[in-house]
Amino acid sequence: MKKAIQIGGWAAVITLLAVMALPCPAADSAVLRNGFSIRHERRLVIGTVTRLYVNGDESSFVDVPTEEIDHFEAAPDERVSHLRLQAAAENVGHPLNLNEVVNAASGTYRLDPDLVNSVIRAESGFDVRAVSPKGAQGLMQLMPQTASKLGVQNVFDPQANVEGGTRYLRELLERYDFDLIKALAAYNAGPRRVEQYGGVPPYYETKAYVARIVRDFNKKKLAAKTAAQPPPQKSAGSKSSGTHAPAVKLHSSIPQAQAKASLTQGSQ
Fold it and tell me: Contact at 8 Å (CB) between 115 and 263?
């Protein structure tokens, strides 16, 4: 049973029979039987499917067969994760500025720091000690064999982890001709799976992961663009031109088309 993530506004009212709403006042994680987890803000059980809304305004969701969900658990609070990062920095004897770490790694590998931050948010929620059920570790959730290939000796060292993860993301972008969707899918599920399926593999967790990063990245670029623009001059009979399109478009089925906008700094 394959269900695609559906992203975008819905204008029609859908009548749902046998629908049970499950309140989810704070972010939760749905832990699947395959070991993956999906962070979500709210969920609905619709027949044999559980719909997980991955953001607060419910414009992005993923449908998962209820039988594939093992259990639900509270997702880590991002504010707590930031405090953990600060505490880890204090333990090594000097303050850590994560923005500086991300900017340095992004500059080295010519990536947009907003993209790297969006990946970190999706991977670990900025928890420097994060460990996934599959064994991925640290801020950018490096698997032990990947960390070894990248020369990262201590995956819980934020600077080493971010530098290694940023390098790996750059390598994946180059591998897929700067197709962001494929690169992110490979970062999550592995290049072998992306090549096996010719694009995003049909895994719920991977689809939700790609959607979450693209949405977060687009929000950052839109906010930066809006802040840089002077307020529009109002004149009689004129109408606002509306909001600008996001940097990367992600359609309902996560297309395999190229998405190369605003990902890198400088020449590729």
Answer: yes
Retrieve residue 252's tokens: 């309902």
Q: Which CATH class is domain 6-10+17-74?
A: mainly beta
Q: How far apart are CA 38 and CA 33, in angstroms?
A: 12
**Residues 157-171 pLDDT 10s:** 999 999 999 999 999
* Active-site residue set: 123
Instruction: Give the global pTM.
Output: 0.60
CATH class, 78-175 region: mainly alpha
